[in-house]
Design a protein that fits this description.
single chain; 198 residues; mainly alpha; 2 domains; elongated
């Protein structure tokens, strides 16, 4: 299980790294990130309790292990989706990241309380602590990244970066102006397309 998660994390990182220079980078990032989020969303109970990836395996878990494993998986998936939104420059990223980070922190505390009351929840606590802290660190790092920094991940040329960032700042002066938003998006997409053709 951990190997699948590690592979998806590596593919997501490679997708981000190559997204500005290749046509396949975006696709790899999209598929790997969303697969990782779905894995935690659907099978969070199995990942965090170290059981098989099946709903039948959930029958062998206590109610607390199944319920809180699933809830922790959902909060980690929320961080992943929020990071995806932020790197795609879509609205709602900040809210998703904050909800995911705070939710994951709460679930780590709840899992710790369960572990103190019930030795059976030890694996859930340990794995939710490790997976949760990794997700929180990545989520907080992406949350703190400026839009300018995210633009620089995609666009390599300094002059092109300046033009796109200038269009972004123009739009931010009046965020309700849809024309400025479209100018920014068009400039970003045209620059990215030109860069990939080189």
């Amino acid at each position: 299980m951990t190997l699948y998660i590690l592979i998806l994390l590596i593919l997501s990182g490679a997708g981000i790294f190559f997204s500005g220079t290749t046509t396949w980078g975006d696709t790899v990032f999209d598929i790997a990130s969303l697969a990782l989020a779905l894995l935690y969303f659907i099978y969070g109970f199995a990942i965090l309790n170290k059981t098989k990836l099946s709903f039948k395996a959930a029958k062998d878990l206590s109610f607390n292990q199944a319920f809180f494993g699933t809830a922790t998986g959902w909060t980690i998936a929320t961080i992943i989706v929020g990071a995806f939104f932020k790197l795609r420059m879509w609205p709602g990223a900040q809210v998703l990241l904050w909800v995911g980070i705070i939710g994951t922190l709460i679930m780590i505390v709840v899992n710790y309380i369960l572990y103190k009351k019930d030795e059976e929840s030890k694996t859930l606590f340990q794995r939710s602590l490790v997976h949760g802290i990794i997700a929180i660190i990545i989520g907080a790092w992406i949350l703190s990244a400026s839009q300018e920094h995210i633009i620089s991940l995609y666009i390599q040329d300094d002059n092109d970066q300046k033009d796109v960032i200038e269009a972004y700042h123009d739009w931010q002066k009046n965020p309700s102006d849809s024309t400025l938003h479209m100018i920014y998006l068009n400039k970003f997409n045209e620059t990215l397309k030109k860069q990939k053709q080189q």
